[in-house]
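Budget justification, computational time. The allocation requested in the original proposal was used primarily to generate structure tokens for proteins on the priority list. As evidence of use, we reproduce two of the resulting records. The first is shown immediately below.
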Amino acid sequence: MTHRMRLVDHVAAELHRIGVRYVFGVGGANIEDLYDAVHRAPGPIRGVVAKHEFSAVTMADGYARTTARLGVVAATSGGGAMNLVPGLAEAHASRIPLLALVGQPPTGQEGRGAFQDSSGKAGSFDARDVFAPVSRFCVRVSEPAAIAGALAQAITVAQTEPRGPAVLLLPKDVQQARIDVPAMAGAAVPAGTADPAAAARVRADAAQAAAAGTSRVPAVPRPDPASLAAAVAALQDASRIMVIAGEGAAGTEARGELAALVRRLGACVAVTPDAKDVYDNRSPRFVGVTGVMGHREVEDCLRRADACLLVGTRLPVLARGTLEPLLTGMPVVCVDPEPPFVPGIALLAGVADTLRTLARRVRPRPSACSAHHSPSLTGLPPVSGAATDYASAVAAIAEALPQDAHVFVDAGNAGAAAIHALPAPRDGRFVVAAGMGGMGYTFGAGIGAALATGRRTYVVAGDGAFFMHGMEVHTAIEYGAPVTFVILNNNAHAMCVMREEFFQGGARPENVFHPSHIAAGMAAMFPRLRVTSADNPAQLRSALRGSNDGGGPALVAMDFDHRGIPPFQPFLTASASSRAGSGATAPGRHPINEQEHAHDQPIHVG
């Protein structure tokens, strides 16, 4: 028995069937039929219209990171499609499962001067060449009958390790076509499916149903037996083990398995900057954050260890900082679907299953951690006449933050301070877009998370990030998302100013802005938005606590001096050297310039 329906109605029904509750995006002529189908679909699936396609992707990203489900974004052709690229690049680098449904001009107009043609015909560029590098799977659906297999395969690939975005390019006439759909159609993987046998059957069904030319679905990764044996031997022989856990452990919901293995190994635990929530920050085993925004206790603990276990991280430059010389002198085991960026024994497999396997094979041992001390906050040099320092502001945020809230931290000096000093909530996510590090990511991502979970979500961002994508506050108002936007305003691209000062012979004026009154401006634009301008940490704490009690969004802004140095290792090293140096230097011959490229080259971060 079959049903005849529009192709887009089938897509909407399949998304609803696998548990998708929101389709984020921006409308347009070549995607309007899909939005119509989502609007008409039975059940709790809803379209959310963002202000910009980049933010729509990050909404789907935030949805996926807080639910461990597939995030979905939809956009029209042309500029709308191109605006998806940076958000998909972040999801690809951070391995976030997304599905992008991208409208295209009708097939009959391809290569004939169609508006926004990206078919690759008659001199137009091919959208597949644009999206392929930032996706795990990209297919143009040119025949309506191919949608069942292509959709199933895209959903499966997005959720198969290494996870990431999948893209379906949907011409308008294909979207409108009517297709025969079996009553029990659909081979897509339900969100959260963890049964390998079921997943294998789904992949086989999807491969058979996929249209010719679609990409091969990767197999579920399992650890190589020889590598597994070598890893167990390395961990057994070690007397002190240091565990460094990353976003992959949080994204695959492997926190419980991680904690169980840590107890069995008697290990100490550090986390990468994008994974503060993957291990209890208040545990006696927790030693802090790794990398250029982290804590000196991590390096101290690693010096005492004789083996290191990486979990859910490849340990990129941002996360490893000055740890690389120490890691080259000890056995390193990496549990991750992809190989690490440092030499070691790679267990290329699913994180949770591999952690359970290791826990069964290694013998339990007593804790080798020293007496616990909270990770120390880096002492920052005072700034004459500066506004409230970041450490005081972050302490106020910590006092107000609900322990079931989600936190999304943006790039820049404000982000560095939060990564360093803000403890992750016990029962919520602490998210940093460390894949591409794009400014403004948090405004969409925080909204997606808040809508997905209904929990109060904090967005911590500077004015630079706000001016890029802060108008998504309007989206939060429209949909009643419980987001508190915390804008730490230093009227500058201050991290760029710091780089100019320390590494380029002196700060230039273009990255320092005329003062802006963000709270006053947002209050005038949006009378329904709860807005507060805080002058000190006490006011900031009070305003944030007030935002927790009401529904919908709120915004709190606070001013800082752009000369305040954040807890960012290259800046702190340069500042200390500058204060210890003698006299002024000629422009272009700043002594720290040479130092960064000589001493700090392994931890150079943009």
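The second record produced under the same allocation is shown here.
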Amino acid sequence: MKIAELAPLMNEMSKEKMMAHIEEFSRWTKHAGTEGELESLKYVEREMQAYGYETQLILHDAYISLPGEARVDALGESFGCIAHSFSRSSGPDGTTGRLVYAGIGRPQDYEGLNVSGCVVLLEGIANPAATLEANRQGAIGQIHISPHEYVHEMCISAVWGSPGDDQVGILPKSVVVTVPLETGQRLKQAIADNEPVDVALFAEVDTGWRKTPILVADYIRPGADRDDPFVLYTGHHDTWYYGVMDNGGANATMLEVSRLCVQRADLWERSLRVIYWSGHSQGRYSSSSWYADHHWEELERRALVHVNVDSTGGLGNTVVGDTTAASELAELAQEALSTQAGQDFTGRRMERAGDQSFWGIGVPAIFGNMSEQPAKPGSSNASAAVFGCQNRLGHGTGWWWHTPHDTGDKIDADILDRDTRIYQYTVWRLLTDQVLPLDYAAYAREALATLKRYEEQAGDKLSLAPLTEQAQELEERANRLNAAIRAQGEESGKAAALLNGCLKELSRVLVPLDYTYGDRFSHDPALKQHSLPALSDMPRLGGLDPDSDEFKFLASRLIRERNRAAVSLRDAIAVIDQYFQKG
């Protein structure tokens, strides 16, 4: 490791330069496909070129949804609200129906309710899962109640990226708005008082194909050819409103790390590709998914690890331990967080969010949302749900998130500096370690724990013993591989190349197993996902009668998924065996 050479670069990190970037990002609203976004991105391009990067500005078609004016008419009044990205437009006459309260919109919240043709009133921030369920129940509209006086913009489509013709049918089918807490409480109380509450939703939403930009910046390490493997370092540039924290802070972090790393590119073991995405906020990761689709073969050959940057530097965001990393990168995450912030990594799993469009290809990922507000004792479930952070150290990125209030005054220069140091450490290690810091023994341990948990929850109604045996075997092989990495040191470039080749092959087999439903060429829905997702319905077996049709249908599918997982684990074991045969 070339950590000793990192200290001089850390000493050159400049809060002043980063805050100058923040000032620039404060000038533009940057909704996907708009002129403000493109002008802001051209500033980033000029900066990257000045650092010595080769840049390419790509304009591509993306299915983008920009919400406009909205209101709710009810109880003889008109209430302010916001519509959501991929909500249906109401038309000039509005969408009218009886209002029905349905909790937080889970399937069990609809038990005993008939909401066909109705508008449902739901607790918490708008989200794809609640929208899908409301559509399944036949609701024609949704009113979400914010947990406080601020209303947060959201993309409610469950389609990851621009939809194919086979996905158009699962786009939202109803009008979806969010009201402040006080309005929601009034509507909820009226229903509780057994009043028949009729509402009219008015929403203008501009949804369609737009040209959106991607900025790609490459730095090929000295002496390498243009097919050199690279670290993929990305973050979105499009925003809600000015979006100075989300994602201007991250873009400032990306620029500063990019500037510093090239000063010692002579020490790199691999190259660096930095990408600024559009379509994150109003296209459900349309640019990163487009890039994965159109550069699949190159990424499969060359991309080694994906480092994602989101929402750094936010005022009061003192917690970093709740960030995310794949299990094979957890040790690197712990080292970066502890050395640069004095905090321990909680081990939180990567989430199905944040431009993680490369898992099917087999690219392991580290980080996303970096820093958060500290959790508040006694916080309500609804408040925690708005940021998805129950039972965690952190409590979201600030009340201004996804609102017009995300402006330059929400950036703390010291916190931005701390967050950027975490990324600087991480990217430097990935660029300069002779052997990539990937630990597939840790992966195997997590997979083994997941398999045992699923089998226990299934009540032994379907054995996963073949998989648990393979996971144990993989852990043994990976421990041996880790020992070879430690023993190899810095002595032989050929030995390091063989180890890196083995680690890349392992990632191509194991990342899709842990983070996809099995198709390497498509994108799974933008919904919550568990470890080994293709087997994650195992616990349902525990509550079903083995003689029932439902049990037998489910077991039939899970047996096929067990076979798929067995082949992946078998192939991973073979990759390590082949390495030792070559060695």
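A brief technical remark on that second record: The first helix runs from residue 6 to 12.
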